[in-house]
Amino acid sequence: MRTLILLWRLTLPSLLRVPMVPPSGGRRDPAPSVWSYRYQRLMLTPFYRRLFHVGLPAGLVTLIALLWLASADNRAALSARFEAWKDAVQDRPEFMVTKIEVTGADRALMAAIREVARLDLPLSSFDLDVDALRLRITDLTAVRSAQVRVNPGGTLEIAVAQRNPVAVWRYADGLRLIDAEGVMTGMIAERADRSDLPLIAGDGAKDAIDEALALFAAAAPIAPRVRGLVRMGERRWDMVLDNDLRILLPTEQPVQALERVIALHQAQELLDRDVAVVDMRLGDRPTVRLNPPALATLRAAAAAVATTAAAAPVFEDH
Amino acid sequence: MRPLYETQRLMRGIRRAALQRGVIAILDLGTSKTACLVLRFDGPQRSQPVDGVGPMAGQSQFKVIGHAVTRSRGVRYGEVDSMGETERAIRTAVQAAQKDAQVRVDHVIVCFSGARPESFGLFGEAEVEGATVDGWDIGRVLASCDAPDIGHGREVLHAQPVNWSLDHRSGLADPRGQVGQRLSSDLHLLAVDGAAIETLLLCLKRCDLECAGIASSAYVSGIASLVEDEQELGAVCIDMGGGTTGLSVFMRKHMVYADSVRMGGEHVTADISMGLQIPMAMAERIKTLYGGVVATGKDDRELIPIGGDTGDWEHDRRVVSRTELIGIMRPRVEEILEEVRARLDVAGFDKLPSQSIVLTGGGSLIPGLDGLAARILGRKVRLGRPLRVQGLPQAATGAAFSASVGLTLFAANPQDEWWDFEIPPDRQSARSFRRAVKWFKDNW
User: Fold this and answer.
1) CA dist., res. B2 & res. B160, Å (int)
2) Is residue B132 a part of any domain in this protein?
């Protein structure tokens, strides 16, 4: 070791240090040689100056970096290191989401949302795709719109605007709940589950939900007797009462037609009679179809009247 | 004379290009020192020419950004004596100045003092073609000057119109645009040895420099050290250099005469060296430290060690009194001044209206020189220092640098010379074409 130090002291400085004193005998010549003069002038030229001071070092660094990156192991090591560094930053407690808070949803919907937004918490907010989560929640039929944001403190807040069902739609696959915009919000097993909501049926019923709601509102005086509305030919409504009494409503202005029927009912108790169909499709000629027993009775009564009229003398015999 | 005319025009073009690039070097190639200054032209007045002498004599246009002085080698009597050595001196100076300025310089304006300058007075005369005098008329007047016999192998260094007269009005500074019939001009022509210029240009070329102008150092030191009224009223500038003593006579702001004496400060040094048996470097040292031309009683008691490294104790410890030194220097200085006096007498100095004399150059720093010069040359003698230019380092403000400073002024606003005017084409076709153009101008 000591020998090495001695060697170092003896050799290297003597190699590095330029002799400051010129060799004795000759004066030091201050004049530059032709090549050093040309070299200095070249180095003072702006282009070469920039090339040597900026271009070459930058190029050298780039070259070394490229050569190092040419090996796949180095690239993998670099990317792994970068990922580790990124994870270390992202997993800091300031960025972690620890709980989910759902607002504006009822219990069933809340359960559905928790099912959809199933995250293994705690989770870094960098790994959380809030937009996708919002889309998944909005895809739930019962959700009209949703806001998803990460609040400070590590809370993922999901604010939901829920769709409220206004009617039950009996469709081929069962009973659907639909809201005021005609969008299905869910399904129920039995009519009795949501007996508070009116029933509609028929193809295209959900497209005319506004009209149906207006008709139900107009039918308030006979509400206990109304069983539902049936859309006929995607064009007009039939109102079905108990006893299978149907009120055929016109395409145009069905509410007024219904109000006429209700007025007739209130004046003459039309609907309490043994009527099968009240046909309001032609506004200026409302028609009533009786049930067969009533028809028979009516016919019999009419015949009796006729025979009475024909046997007047007989009657006069009494 | 035509090739030189072309060369000088070419140099003028190079100078213009250099000024557009904004950086130019000036090189004062003297016998004892080579000075290089790098100038940058970006002053506020660069785009606004001013009439006559502007503020600060127009020198606020440029700034000295680099400065270097080195000992000259290979130059004798103001001429290149050994090209290799001269090149090395130029390279040293230019490289140090470039390093100081941190820019690369490609164009250089050079001045030198030797090559036996000789003045000629020329007279030219021509009819004015149009109604008023224009550049073509001036060119024809200058072309009509009868070329004097300047001798074999001589070249024209400066050819400056110093006086214009139109009809019977004389002393016009600028006849352009004036109305008259007959235009005549007095031209001052300075001829030097052509070989000296050629050698100098070759030296610059071998240093990768482009020559953008060449001037006589007597002329440029006159520009720098004569104040404006001296130039106007008439004065002589005596530039006491190392190898030569240049003299230039100024009158009405033009140089009207120039000459040089082939003796200078180096001869004084050589006399000391020979008289005291000491090396030249030591002689130069005691000349600058203790030199003088007027001895007083105190000087007997002032003993100067002159040293030596022979190893002989007695020889290496010699001393001389300052009186002895002055006794060696004074005859040589007197001889130089007598020679200058003789040249001035030849030039007709005694007919000059104002006979003021300005001593400048490194040799003028000898103490007591002004008294001696007043006794030999005349009463009105003063020591001149060059004008202050912007950015000039303190080390370069002395009288020894008057040629360098004058060269910066020469670079900034040069005097109109013969080659600045177009020589009118002699060909008939061009003349008739010009006449046709003139006819169109007059009639349309």
Assistant:
1) 16
2) yes
